[in-house]
Write a structure and sequence with these properties.
This protein has two domains: about 160 residues, Rossmann fold; about 70 residues, no CATH class. The chain is an alpha/beta fold. The strands form two sheets. Strands 6-7-8-3-9-10 form a six-stranded mixed β-sheet, sandwiched between helices. The two termini are about 35 Å apart. It is built from ten helices and ten strands.
């Protein structure tokens, strides 16, 4: 399989504090790859490094054969990377439709109607609330909007940071089903950072476990789900 993203020996610091310690991972085109780990393990830092929001001190990030380690964020987005950030970060005073328009700006609005229709097909609830302000939506609806907004730029690689965080359990299942649909129907490669290890590993083709800024384990989603140390650390009481 062709590689979408390759990360080799990545080291990132905040001042003198090392956040990433020689991270190696790769994501093939069309895959859903998940990264699990405890709070503070470095998962979000890795996503920010891929987007250029945190500059890596050493190592390489390669997107479809192009080294983007030192590239500015806007160039990385233009190359087909989009992020659905932790905490959703939608614009609360703007309507659902206006939030989606902001996601489409890098795409020059050429496919706006077609892409909005796809987002509404994926998340019918957003269609019902398209003229409501983002701040009036529930947590789960705001997460749908954050994912929808990220899709509006027609990404090749979608980075998702904790999509199930703070969402009612009934909606968590729906969010994960929609991630599966995005992968299959839109042929988008997905890198999913997620604390809900059970749902993430069930969905993912492959997974990585991060501990203290380094990758400690890798395998298929099924292999990692079956490993007793993964179950003990991340799945006790998490299978819901």
């Amino acid at each position: 399989m062709a590689e979408m993203l390759s990360i080799k020996g990545l080291e990132t610091f905040y001042g003198k504090i090392q956040a990433l310690r020689g991270v190696d991972l790769h994501i093939n085109k069309g895959e859903i790859v998940t990264l699990i780990g405890a709070n503070g393990a470095g998962k979000s830092t890795l996503l920010m490094s891929i987007c250029g929001r945190v500059q890596a001190r050493s190592g390489a990030i390669v997107l479809e054969g192009v080294d983007i380690t030192k590239a500015p964020t806007h160039e990385i987005i233009q190359m087909g990377v989009s992020q659905s950030p932790e905490g959703r970060r939608i614009f609360p005073r703007m309507t659902v439709l206006e939030n989606l328009q902001l996601g489409a700006t890098t795409n020059q609005m050429a496919y706006f109607d077609e892409d909005v229709a796809k987002v509404f097909d994926l998340f019918p609830r957003l269609d019902e609330r398209k003229n409501q302000r983002g701040g009036t939506l529930s947590g789960g609806e705001q997460q749908m909007l954050a994912i929808g907004r990220a899709l509006m730029s027609r990404p090749k690689l979608l980075l998702m940071d904790e999509p199930s965080l703070g969402i009612a359990p009934i909606l968590v299942r729906q969010i994960f089903q929609s991630i599966g649909r995005i992968s299959k129907e839109e042929h988008v490669t997905i890198f999913l950072v997620e604390q809900n290890a059970f749902h993430a590993l069930k969905l993912a083709d492959r997974g990585y476990v991060m501990v203290n800024g380094a990758v400690s384990m890798t395998g298929t989603g099924a292999e990692l789900l079956a490993r007793p140390e993964v179950r003990a650390a991340y799945l006790e009481g998490g299978a819901h």
